[in-house]
Amino acid sequence: MDRLLTITLGVLGCALLQPDTALAQELPASVYVDISPDFVTNFDEGARLKYLKASVSLKVDTESEPQVRYHLPSIKNNLIILFSAQAEENLTSTVGRETLRREALEEVKQVFGMLERNGADKVQDLYFTNFIVQQ
After folding, report:
1. 16 in a domain, yes or no?
2. Backbone angles phi and psi of 55, in degrees to 5
């Protein structure tokens, strides 16, 4: 009986000394925040209406995720204004889309920087996960 108790206590002791795998894993340095719903806006002030539908994800510092989510209305507002001000040439070429992506990233950094202390440094990147232009 004493031997069984000793073995049981030994096993329990070893289990307590082992770090919990869920707790031992460190949080990632950054996370992706999907901005939803997708952006749908008209663009290019021509005679015919043209539409852009874009899905956007932000790569942000893990600890900043709650603040980014809180400020999404301001971020979305500025991105809608940016997207709707585009000329057709900017949306239909690969170079134009990449330029727009960089402009959108700078816009998000600027907005988040105004709303949160050192916020601009917390937004690492912006990605288009879907991009459709209807001409």
Report:
1. no
2. -100, 135
Give the chain's domain count. 1
Alpha-carbon distance values, 21 to 14, 26, 29, 42 (Å): 14, 10, 18, 49
The CATH number of residue 90's host domain is 3.30.479
Instruction: Quote the CA–CA distance of 60 and 105 in Å, as a whole number.
Output: 11
What domain range is 100 assigned to? 30-134
d(CA 50, CA 52): 7
Which run of H or of E encompasses 50?
A: strand 50-61
Q: How far apart are CA 117 and CA 125, in angstroms?
A: 18
Whole-structure pTM value: 0.77
Residue 128 domain flag: yes
Helices and strands in the chain, H and E counts: 6, 3
Q: Is residue 74 part of a domain?
A: yes
Residue-by-residue pLDDT tens, the chain, 135 positions: 555 444 444 544 554 455 555 544 677 899 999 999 999 999 877 778 889 999 999 999 999 999 999 999 999 999 999 999 998 888 989 999 999 999 999 999 999 999 988 888 999 999 999 999 998
